[in-house]
Amino acid sequence: MSFVLEKVTAREILDSRGNPTIEIEAFTSDDQMARASVPSGASTGSREAVERRDGDKKRFGGKGVRDAVNSVNTEICGAVKGTDVREQRQLDNLLLALDGTENKSRLGANAILGVSLAAARLAAQNTRQSLWRYLGGLQANLLPVPCMNIINGGVHARGQGADFQEFMIAPHGAPTLAEAVRQGNEVYQALRLLLLEKNLSTAVGDEGGFAPSVSSNREPLEFIVHAIEKAGYRPGEDISICIDPASSEFYRDGRYHLHSEGSALSAQEMTDYYAGLMDDFPIVLLEDGLAEDDWAGWKYLYQQLGSRAELVGDDLFVTNVKYIRRGIEEELASAALIKLNQIGTLSETLDAVALCHQYGWGTFMSHRSGETTDTFIADLTVALRAGHLKTGAPCRGERVEKYNQLMRIEQSLGNNAHYAGFQTFVHRG
Ligand SMILES: O=C(O)[C@@H](CO)OP(=O)(O)O
Ligand SMILES: [Mg+2]
Q1: CATH label, 136-424, candidates 3.40.50.720, 3.40.640.10, 3.20.20.120, 3.40.50.300
Q2: Portions of the chain given CATH number 3.20.20.120
């Protein structure tokens, strides 16, 4: 079995929104092949690594992704030929040096990440290991709490629903991952019936959650608590709630504009608003409660609410150790969202997770709103003992496929599998 990278090739494919994205194939000198594809966000942080796409992300065959494809087929292919696919850091460093920019804008973070992931998968394949085992070794036995996004709002619902982007359920009381997926799905189905009873739309948003038109950000939480009970579970005991308001999207001129409620709040008022929600609903995790540039606001948020819920930075940290380190030093949050394509290589993602764990921070592994059926993040979550992940509703193939892969991994671990449960959510401060 060879480990020598012979060539990488790329093509343009569609993501789950029907927008173009990149797929990479990597080959060893004995003609073994592995494939990886790269997702794309809608509520992207401004400090994310730069993907090469058309401005509006909509044109298949447009310049952006085609340019990234060309770079892989020519420049990148020439540079990586001959590297050992097991030497992931060496390969990733080579790609960083080749690009030469701080934010991967020359070759494109999508091109770079696709090569990085395809090479890792090839190494796993040629060492005859599953990807999760190859990436995590013997410590890879922690199955994450699946945080299922069952109500979509914000830009993922084209502004027709709640201001908050994601309302997720976390079935942390389940004994196993498979049971958690089953429970989450039961709540999702119960929610559908509740919405229908109220004559609300059950059409879904980008991540498969329902996107009803509501008149406040409390209403989805009320529906969810009701759905948890209707499905036969205890809110807070068996199943809790995680929210990602993605507040950078409604932050302007120093205020948080909640259109559904007709208010514009300061960071302190927004924090009080969240405190009120935490009084009334079993919220265990709040992601991007404040905006990516509101560092002072985050400090206050953490002081007030760090002991009540895991406070996760997504747009704030963009999976970048530089910003996560600042967050740790200044005590701004208790966890980082982890998205491979925010930073652009596997090695840098491993560094971000290691830094978080070193300081007792949580790691919330995440898909993107524009996904492919690639299940790399499911394996990575188990490999890195990330503890909880979000990958949408238990609906829409590109989301379901990640949950299905986690169930496969759990089954192959047998008695050695351990379900993360409630303690995976970091509460402190
Ligand atoms: O904000 C987020 O956390 C993500 C994923 O749910 O959305 P997007 O991929 O659109 O940035
Ligand atoms: Mg987010």
Answers
A1: 3.20.20.120
A2: 136-424
Q: What is the dihedral of CA 300, 323, 327, 248, to 10 degrees?
A: 30
If you take atom 5 of ligand 1, which residue's CA is the nearest one?
368
C-alpha atoms less than 13 angstroms from C-alpha of 316 in its C-beta half-sphere: 30
> What confidence tens digit (pLDDT) does each residue in 141-161 have?
999 999 999 999 998 888 778
Burial track 62-74 (b if 16+ CB lie within 10 A, e otherwise): bebbbebbebbbe
Supply the pLDDT for residue 61: 62
ipTM beyond 0.95?
yes
Is 71 marked within a binding site?
no
pLDDT recorded at residue 141: 98
User: Does the domain made of 4-128 have the CATH classification 3.30.390.10?
Assistant: yes
Atom in ligand 1 nearest the alpha carbon of residue 45: 11
DSSP H helices in 289-427: 295-305, 321-329, 340-343, 346-358, 376-383, 397-413
* pLDDT score, position 14: 95
Q: How far is the CA of 319 from the centre of ligand 2 (A)?
A: 11
Q: What is the pLDDT of residue 383?
A: 98
Give a three-class secondary structure readout of 175-199.
CCHHHHHHHHHHHHHHHHHHHHHCC
Identify the segments of the chain with pLDDT beneath 70: 55-62, 429
Q: Which ligand is nearest to the CA of 367?
A: 1
**Residue 423: which residues within 8 A CB-CB, separation 6 or more?**
none
